[in-house]
Amino acid sequence: MLKWLSLALLLIVAALQYHLWIGEGGLLEHGRVEARADQLAAGNEVLAERNDRLAAEVVDLKSGLDAIEERARNDLGMVRNEEQFYWVPSQRASNNPPQVAPPGADQGGESVIDQIAAEGGSGEAP
Fold it and tell me: So which stretches are on the Periplasmic side (predicted)?
């Protein structure tokens, strides 16, 4: 009888150990979930920094004209009325100059004035 009782207890302990180590909600799954949580937390930190930068930019754009002017200059290439803009072509652009036909040469097409006249335009901007 003691033999059967010890065998039953051994089987119960083995089942509990299996559930603890390998089963659903066990230590193996816990390790995987922790690794995934750490990975997501790292991704969230990057996104939180990005959100902070964007929020600061929004506040800056709402509060002052300096940020708006900077965006207009960098993104749109705008200059002030009293400023002069000098464009310096890059080395690659200067190696391949555009092909321009000499004055009076047949360019194989209509001139801009002929195109405007054909469209019925007066040459003024809309």
Answer: 23-126
Q: Are 71 and 61 in contact (CB under 8 A)?
A: yes
Q: What span, in angstroms and rounded, lies between the C-alpha atoms of 25 and 32?
A: 11
Q: Give residue 39's pLDDT.
A: 95
The answer to whether residues 71 and 62 touch, using CB atoms and an 8 Å cutoff, is no
pTM for the model stands at: 0.40
**How far apart are alpha carbons 48 and 31 in whole angstroms?**
25
| Mean pLDDT in residue range 54-61 | 88
Question: What token pair was written down for 19?
Answer: 């559930």
As given in the structure block, the two tokens for residue 125 are 């901007």
- The residue-averaged pLDDT of 23-43 equals 89
Indicate the burial class of 23 (C-beta count within 10 angstroms; 0-12, 13-18, 19 or more). Answer: middle
Task: Compute the distance between CA of residue 52 and CA of residue 49 in angstroms, rounded to an integer.
Answer: 5
Alpha-carbon distance of 50 to 56, in angstroms, equals: 10
pLDDT tops 50 at residue 126? no
CB 51 within 8 A of CB 43: no
